[in-house]
Write a structure and sequence with these properties.
Distance between the termini: 38 Å
Strand content: 25-35%
CATH superfamily of the largest domain: Umud Fragment, subunit A
CATH architecture of the largest domain: Ribbon
Shape: globular
Structural class: alpha+beta
Number of helices: 3
Strand order of the largest sheet: 2-1-3-4-9-5-6-7-8
Length: 206
């Protein structure tokens, strides 16, 4: 079992309580209200972690609500380790909100790690000089810290998500493109939450 933060365990407990009471899955807004959160962006970060851990289904639109992964019966086949959640698209350009997808995608073992991972499809060309192109799939290891120089999924001001190389210094975080036509964007550390780090990449030539 993947270790969960206190907030993630709280979310999981709320979802299980509603499921046990045969209540419909809560929307993101309803879950924010239940947990006393003001930012959907902060909640989305924790939902991503639960999806990556295989405990919550990928979001399929707010009307569906946040659903637990069904518990397998005694005769169920074990979940394939090579299938990771495809959580949507992310900007490698100007920040846009990540868009939830419906699927899981096969990822070779050498492109992922032993920690919870998920996959995002890249939109934009701000990382083109790092070899990450529009339409590529990147494998993200879920974690909330990164080393300088790593390419990260960054949540900005609890609202927008982007893919950039990170440079951290006291009192400042730089999210740097790998495109000579674009400039780094500077933020206060409180404005940026790391949601994961790129550990693999896939591309289709068709």
């Amino acid at each position: 079992m993947t270790a969960l933060t206190r907030r993630q365990q709280d979310i999981l407990d709320r979802l299980r309580m509603r499921a046990d009471a045969a209540e419909p899955p809560p929307t993101l807004d309803e879950l924010c209200g239940l947990l006393g959160l003001r930012s959907r962006g902060s909640l989305h970060k924790h939902i991503r972690a639960l999806v990556a851990a295989g405990l919550v289904e990928p979001l399929r639109g707010q009307h569906r609500g946040v659903r637990l992964v069904p518990r397998p019966g005694p005769d169920a086949e074990p979940m394939r380790e090579d299938l990771l959640p495809l959580l949507g698209r992310i900007a490698a350009g100007s920040p846009i909100e990540a868009i939830a997808a419906l699927d899981r995608i096969e990822v070779p073992a050498h492109l992922r790690t032993g920690r919870p991972c998920y996959v995002l499809q890249v939109v934009g060309d701000s990382l083109c000089e790092a070899g990450i192109l529009d339409g590529d799939y990147v494998v993200i290891e879920h974690r909330e810290q990164a080393r300088n120089g790593e390419i990260v999924v960054a949540l900005i001001n609890g609202e927008e998500v982007t893919l950039k190389r990170i440079r951290q210094a006291p009192g400042r975080v730089l999210l740097c493109p790998e495109n000579s036509d674009m400039q780094p964007q500077a933020y206060h550390p409180d404005e940026v939450q790391i949601q994961g780090v790129v550990v693999g990449q896939m591309r289709a030539y068709r």
